[in-house]
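Hi everyone, sorry if this is the wrong subforum. Our group has a chain we'd like a structural model of before ordering constructs, and none of us has done structure prediction before. Sequence below.
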Amino acid sequence: MSDSITASASPVVLEAWFDLQCPDCFQALDDVRALREKYGDRIDVRLRHFPLEKHKHAYAAAQAAEEAAEQGQGWPYAEALLARTTELDGRGEPLLVELAGELGLEAEEFDTALIDGRHLLVVDADQAEGKAIKVTGTPTYVIDGERLDGGKSQEGLRARIEEIADRLLAG
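Answer:
Right subforum, don't worry. Here is the predicted structure as tokens:
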């Protein structure tokens, strides 16, 4: 899922492999926001799905985020959902649909999408690619072919991403 604001013309692509039920991914949003603020449309932050087995609603959450992206609100939905990871753990799919309604999206389409599985292939493809590049935890970032694992520690990751982005933008 690309950042719909900057996806078309961005010279730098940052893939953010997230599990939307992961508290560490919620913490990583501060870095994502800071990077967007610093680089604006020169960076395309792409949400890639890597639902972890230990989070029983992460797979459905990834599908819901894809439906939100289809309705033009992918990142706002993902951010709002990450702010409610504890609630998602307890409430599951009803929260995914409720959150869509709160954001002014067509909640019935979310419910239908979760039932008919229209976004399964996207989520499965992301997860398979993540495994192929040895993503093991979330958040994990990929920029200019370099994988940065934030699943163990996020310390220093934003600085490293900025270093790589600055180099790429300098040409």
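For your construct planning: The mean pLDDT is 92. The chain is about 55% helix and 15% strand.
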